[in-house]
Amino acid sequence: MIPLNMKDIAIIDAFPIYNYEKRVLNVGCGTGRIDFHLAEMGYRVDAFDIKNYDTWEDKENLTFRKADIFEPQNLRTASIVICSQMLEHLKSYKCALMNLVALAEVRLIITIPYRKSFNCNTHCNFWDDRAFGKFKDVHEFHTLCHPFSIAISKIRTKLKDAKTNRYNYLIIVDKRQNYKKRE
């Protein structure tokens, strides 16, 4: 099994710790690295991506399949929904984000890269601190995920990323908490 990186650990640390069913939907799972670990930890994981991967192998608590976030009627809701390093690839990421919020029963956990941190030619969306309210009263993700509470932090995937100013945003949408906009 491939070891977890710091981003994967941050995602798992963001899981709620009580009063929820241990069902996870991983949207844009890629090779399934984190999914194998979650299944070993006792979670029931449904993982999908827009394409099939050779590394996919269904297990007792783990199912992989090909699916599209823009066709959410083909997906089941789950207590926890993970979407890691996917939104930056989608031209219609706002539509995908709304579908993700609808699929999450308790918590939605998203990671996206800071600006052009990882220089991938398939990225069509870029975010920096301005998108997350550092310079505005309400940021884009908070508006799109309203009325639920949202927490945003920065995480590194590797130790060497600190030297090159590369990091990801970890966005947690908690549907148990409603956000009330201050007047």
Low-confidence stretches: none
Task: Specify the number of helices.
Answer: 5
- CATH class descriptor: Alpha Beta
Order the strands across the largest sheet as they lie in space.
Answer: 3-2-1-4-5-7-6
Mean pLDDT: 86
CATH superfamily: Vaccinia Virus protein VP39
> What is the global morphology?
globular
Q: What is the number of domains?
A: 1
Biggest sheet details: 7 strands, mixed
H and E order: HEHEEEHEHEHE
Structural class: alpha/beta
Q: Fill in the CATH topology.
A: Rossmann fold
Q: Any guess at the CATH architecture? A: 3-Layer(aba) Sandwich
Structure summary, number of beta strands: 7
Cα radius of gyration in angstroms: 16 Å
Strand content: 25-35%
**Helicity range of the residues?**
10-25%
- For the termini, the CA-CA separation is 50 Å
Task: Give a description of the structure.
This protein has 183 residues and is an alpha/beta fold. It has a single domain, classed as Vaccinia Virus protein VP39 (Rossmann fold). The protein contains five helices and seven strands, in the order H-E-H-E-E-E-H-E-H-E-H-E. A seven-stranded mixed beta sheet has the order 3-2-1-4-5-7-6. The longest helix has 11 residues, at 93-103. The model has no long low-confidence stretch (mean pLDDT 86).
Features:
single chain; alpha/beta; Rossmann fold; 7-stranded mixed sheet; 5 helices
Compile the SSE list and pairings.
Elements (H helix, E strand, L loop, with lengths): L5 H8 L9 E5 L5 H8 L3 E6 L12 E5 L11 E7 L8 H11 E10 L26 H5 L3 E8 L5 H4 L3 E11 L5
Parallel strand pairs: 1-2, 1-4, 2-3, 4-5
Antiparallel strand pairs: 5-7, 6-7
